[in-house]
Prior knowledge:
The chain is an alpha/beta fold. The protein is built from 9 helices and 11 strands. Helix content is 31%, strand content 20%. The chain has a 6-stranded parallel β-sheet, with helices on both faces. A 3-stranded antiparallel β-sheet has the order 7-6-8. Strands 2-3 form a two-stranded antiparallel sheet. It is globular, with a radius of gyration of 18 Å. It starts with 9 loop residues before the first strand and ends with a helix. The mean pLDDT is 94. Residues 15-17, 20-21, 26-29, 39, 43, 93, 111, 152, 178-180, 182-183, 204-206, 208, 221-222 line the site of 2'-O-acetyl adenosine-5-diphosphoribose.
Amino acid sequence: xxxxxxxxxxxxxxxxxxxxxxxxxxxxxxxxxxxxxxxxxxxxxxxxxxxxxxxxxxxxxxxxxxxxxxxxxxxxxxxxxxxxxxxxxxxxxxxxxxxxxxxxxxxxxxxxxxxxxxxxxxxxxxxxxxxxxxxxxxxxxxxxxxxxxxxxxxxxxxxxxxxxxxxxxxxxxxxxxxxxxxxxxxxxxxxxxxxxxxxxxxxxxxxxxxxxxxxxxxxxxxxxxxxxxxxxxxxxxx
Length: 238
Ligand code: OAD
């Protein structure tokens, strides 16, 4: 049995599976279609260049969906336990705001966030105040049509990578929750953490594409297995 204390460096990675029971569709559980769109048609810079209106419509719709969903017990559990573990970091691939709304601190949205926009003219990142449109105005530089979702699309570099690699090198426990392990670099985090000496744990509905990289695995619904795992984990902390 591994023993940890309050100061153990911990990294938790989450994916779409943690938000599934809140009512948000995962990416790869529906015939490769994501809310009836092929991912290449909406989540690439090329798609945005080709048809920015369609891409805005898609993300505006997904942003509106956030008003209809709530964090579930897995999000709440991570916030409750991790906020008391000062060297723990939560890295999410999700662009929803459910970890934030559950109250998680030390949270990195490596694929960006539906609630943020970025101006391609001046690089200013800020909160989205209204639906984005092809003629939206950047309040900072006054450019028209330069504001896009602050979402990492395929072919773009995920955010915070330098900090994330440092955290992976230093952590003693790495947990992966609700992610298929199909998209790199996140899919490679378990191997990096394991190579640096961390104990690696997968919590997912089914074995992921990179399940071989984990020393321990628990399969089931996030709202059940995440609280169960953390209850056991805190039994071994100060
Ligand atoms: P996926 O849709 O690829 O995988 C979701 C995983 O969650 C699958 O392994 C499911 O079995 C599991 N799952 C489903 N329901 C669950 C539940 N109730 N409890 C626990 N697990 C459950 O989503 P991600 O791995 O997050 O990138 O996808 C990674 C990236 O691919 C996304 O961040 C996105 C996408 O392209 C960008 O937007 C850049």
